[in-house]
Fold:
Amino acid sequence: MWRNKGRGIRAKQGVWAALLLTLALIAAACGGAATTTTAVSATTAAEGTTTTAAANNQVSQTGLKFDLIFHDKDASGTFWGVMKNGLDAACAAQGVSCTMIGDPDITKQAALVDTSIANGVDGIILTLPNVDALRDAIQRAADAGIPVVTINSGSDVFATTAAIAHVGQDEFIAGQGAGKRLADDGAKNILCVIHEANNAALQARCDGVEDGAAGATVKRIQVDVANLDAAFETMKTAVSDSSIDAVITLNPDVSIRARDAIGEAGSSAMLATFDLGEEVLNSIEAGTIKFAVDQQQYLQGFLPVVQLALYKQSGLVIGGGHAILTGPGFVDASNVAQVKDGVAAGTR
Structure:
């Protein structure tokens, strides 16, 4: 039943995403009539994880500056590093100067939006883990004439803000799909591991798991992704309960520690996760992780740059008020070899 929920809308969202990719090529071809062709190199600051990327000397520079503000500090990790690759590629293709900076403290993330406004950027790309904490900052950007595209978390609430578009995954629907797969494999007592406090998207994932795994019991535990050793101990204790027959983590790094915790505890619980990484894919091949939910975060870095460039050039907006979905997809033993090629290329 859950598969049919919003089916027509999601099909259109897939078309919009494909259209946006096509328009990226058009925008790159005709985006900067009276621009220069100076080369800008990619640099990474050690403090604050700021990454600047712009086009090479064969792409006309538009003079536009976009900031991507995310709810973490490390843009080189398993998840955010792939998003950064998408950002870099899109900024190079569009001839845009882009900066990626973040903070896991939502209040500080909002303050970074104000800093970008004060710096006079031309557009802001913003993850939306907590809409209530960021809504006013988005409005301040809009009032300053700076368009905002939200990404990653917040597909169900971005329309309550002044953002012009959202690129991401419907977390509840993704959770439904994961929960159904676990239940179909016989799970009766599922542990859903939340790794960030105050992130509504993670709660939505667990809500979806509970809905999709009809008839199963879903227990939630909190760990800290910034302290994986402590997370390992918490999960090891949790899976020592022999009634737990399935674990789903919401982060690839946490999933590897969950794999190890299950093994050390002598548990027979099956394991699934959200998001990809090289170790996750190796574990899928080895059979120690059942499947992974893929939200294709490369696209979450790439597509917003195209959207903002088109908006600044022509006022174009994709999505018609709905999120442009980049997931969910599922990676298991049947397709893991193909996906590993994408990981090697830095796009998965």
Observations:
- The chain has eleven helices and 14 strands.
- The chain has two domains: 2-170+296-327, 171-294.
- Confidence is low (pLDDT under 50) at residues 1-12, 25-57.
